[in-house]
Amino acid sequence: MGKTKKAYLAGGCFWGMEDLFRVRPGILDTEVGYMGGENDHPTYRNHPGHAEAIELTYDPEQTSFRELLDYFYRIHNPTTLDQQGNDKGSSYRSAIFYQNEEEKVEAEAMIRIVEDSNKWEGKVVTTLEAYTTFWPAEPEHQDYLVRIPNGYTCHFERFKESFV
User: Fold this and answer.
1) How many CB atoms lie within 10 A of CB 157?
2) Model-level pTM greater than 0.70?
3) What pairing do the DSSP bridges indicate for beta strands 94-98 and 127-130?
4) Active site residue 13
5) Overall average pLDDT of the 10-28 stretch
6) b vs e for 91-108, b when ≥16 Cβ sit within 10 Å of the residue's Cβ?
7) Is pLDDT above 90 for 2?
8) H or E stretch at 99
9) Which of 8, 12, 6, 5 is nearest to 125 (CA)?
10) In contact, 58 and 18? CB cutoff 8 Å
11) 3-state secondary structure of 97
12) What is the chain's percent helix, strand, coil content, to nearest 5?
């Protein structure tokens, strides 16, 4: 196996995002956690300003950052500000945490593609935020829907067809 890469996305409750991404081709590992907030070592009960995010470890020979973004926009609503389903607040914002200029440019292009598709009503409100630190969530949040198959999620494939 060649070199792996990581991607960092937030699109509402991290449980549902992780569960859908874990089975995608090229995904080698998933971890849920917190990004983009005010405190070090955030917890589920104390993560001011942090988004519930996922860290995706992937094989770039099997999938691309662009393909990950395409799927990201098919499984959450990027037009609701600080909200996914019943979950409200900045923890549930739509965000892409880019690690370099190439990822930022790719994310900007994907946002334009999603908006131009008119599949979603409203404007895409996904924030582009520079990668800082990914803080893994507590063990009870990892693989939550694998352990509790009927647990809460507001994520599902809204569109089967790709944006690109």
Assistant:
1) 9
2) yes
3) parallel
4) yes
5) 97
6) bbbbbbbbeeeebeebbe
7) no
8) none
9) 12
10) no
11) strand
12) 30, 25, 45
